[in-house]
Amino acid sequence: MAFYDDMAALSVEMAEEFGAPCTLIKNEGEYDTATSEVDNAPASHEGYAIRTDYKLEDIDGTMIQFGDIRLFLAPKTTAGAEMPKAEQGDKILFDGSYWEVIRDDVKRPATVTLGHFVQARKG
To answer: What are 49-69's pLDDT values in tens digits?
Structure first.
């Protein structure tokens, strides 16, 4: 596992050096049995991300739309905790704009998260 741990550490270093700060905002609501309601208090996870745009030939108009971006999220938050998986509908604050998560392709060989490739859409 030492190899993958080293690769995860390198992912964090690269994102810090070549990326920008980001905040993953998750709606981690909990079900309250007394009120039968879900408390949708958002939880923020600060980290680093690198933005890349999709190639024109990747944009099919359905799964990937014009204007969608790909963000590589470092595997660790700035506090050193594991960056949670971004779920559809979560938000990411990156470079002064809010982006809605469409999907998160977590790269996780041998139980070590190396990073998250997140498809995001303005909104």
So the answer is: 999 999 999 999 999 999 999
